[in-house]
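The freezer alarm interrupted the setup, so I double-checked each line after restarting. Inputs confirmed:
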Amino acid sequence: QKEVEQDPGPLSVPEGAIVSLNCTYSNSAFQYFMWYRQYSRKGPELLMYTYSSGNKEDGRFTAQVDKSSKYISLFIRDSQPSDSATYLCAMSAAFSSASKIIFGSGTRLSIRP
Amino acid sequence: GAVVSQHPSWVICKSGTSVKIECRSLDFQATTMFWYRQFPKQSLMLMATSNEGSKATYEQGVEKDKFLINHASLTLSTLTVTSAHPEDSSFYICSANVPPTEAFFGQGTRLTVV
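Predicted 3D structure, all chains:
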């Protein structure tokens, strides 16, 4: 069993739709939860991070963490064609300069105009 | 914000030659950097952890003699793919953590071995 499971998609939705992306994990030691966005042939860039359980909102993006279920989500409201990318969930038990981050396989998202 | 610069962004080399990829932290010191490999439509696979002034730590299944890592300064780590073969063709990405929360990634290097 992988430490982090993520549906690879692809996921295609019309512009303006609400998108829900999810990951499950098995390591209860994970405390830091992150979502990265990666455009084709580019390095990933951080979208959002959450420490422990709870919700966090940033503009059209909302991240949720449910540690009791070992389940995290990223919601995108009013999706735009520019949101089309691969979204990677990531997590770690601690966050220092030497902490390893475990990534999900990534979900390819396409927003249709 | 912190910036990690990776060079080159793409390289084509002949089978049997070696290729060096550089990863620099531009505005912060990185005692640790990470090297990943990514195949098309797949996630990032951690290859090794690069430690300034000491040997790199390789993940299981990664050949240390094949993928040489040097971290000679607090701002530069290099990955050398030695005696490259077509199966080494991939997208290689480096990253460095800036606590408390963010990992910054380089732009990635697309290696094609012909």
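Quick read of the result. The first strand of chain A starts at residue 4 and ends at 6.
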